[in-house]
Structure formats: C-alpha cells, structure tokens
Input
Amino acid sequence: MGKKTLIYIIIGWCLLTIIKYYFIPYFIAFLLWALLSFTFLGFAITQVLKIVWEWKSLAKLRIIKFLVFSILFYLTFNQSPFNRLIEKADWSIQYKRRMAIVDKVKSGELNPNGNHNNGLCKLPYEFPVVSHGGNDILIGKSSDSEELIVKFWIFRNFFEAPSIYFVYTTNEKKINELEERVARDPKNNWRIEENWYRTFGE
Output
C-alpha cells in the first residue's frame, strides 16, 4: 500500500462521511460505523506490529500508515468532531434555502402533504438536500395565529430513537421549551440565532 492509496482512502472516507450525513439512514450508518471502525483499528494494529517487527529497518511510510489509520479510526469511532464540522458548513451554505422554505410555509405555499396527517411535508428531492432522510420537513402551525414550527432533520432516526433537527419557530411556548432544553443540555442543544435552534432528541 503506497502513498497514493493512502490519499485515496482519506478522500474516500471524507466523501463517505459527507454522503452519510445527507443520505444514509440510521441502521445502515450504524453498520457502516462498526465496519469502518473495526477495519481501521485492524489496520492500525497491523502497522504497530510491523513497526515492532521492522524496527531496525523501519521505513517512514510505515509510521505514516500507522498515523493515518489511527486518526481515521478515532474520527470514525468518535464521529462528533467531523460531523459537527459538516453540520456548521451545511447550516451556513443552506441557510438561504431553508429560510426560503420557511417563508413558503408562512405564506401557505407549503403545507403538510404526508399520508398520515402528522405535519410531514415532502419537498422536491434536490441535491444538496435540506433535510436528512428523504428531504422531508415537519410543519406545525397554530390555527388561530401566525405562530409556526418548522423542523429540518440533521439526522433522521427511526421509531422512538432520538433525531437531530434544525428548528425554526415563532411559537413562544416552543421557544421557552427549547430554551429549557438548551439550558439542560447545551452540549447537544443550542440557539443558532433568533427563532433558530439546533436540537437533539426532539
């Protein structure tokens, strides 16, 4: 395995992580996480054994391989730092698109259109998607006021498992609830700007 192969592995890992952020559902993402974690750990251990075995004639490339596989193992096993980086970039790049969607909800141009009357609104599937897991959003409107809640999935989980959202709301009760959530768990929940929150476990 030469330097070019290592570069391809790093580029492939970065691309796969971005694809996972936008498209891959939880159960596949978990299997992928386990597979890559064990693979990179195995490669790192192999390189350690080879470093010990070849100590007297140790090549610089061997150490580079060990460092690359160790770092990729750490970043795969502990996904938070890289995912947060993608999340921040995604928020900045797609802010105007999300605000345009919110404006359409406000004007009544976009409304829930799912089959189960649960607030789900299926958006046209365009890349990059603004909401993980199918480009759907959740809409909550108050019948007697202009207050609304619009949720964009950052990571869409299944069944009762917690999901992660960008939430836009003008609903005072919801804002108070989200502020309490931020105070209780600021590591996973925070206010991004006026009316916008990032939440975990909604």
Remarks:
- The longest helix spans residues 26-53.
- The mean pLDDT is 84.
- Strands lie at 120-122, 136-141, 148-155, 164-169, 190-193, 196-200.
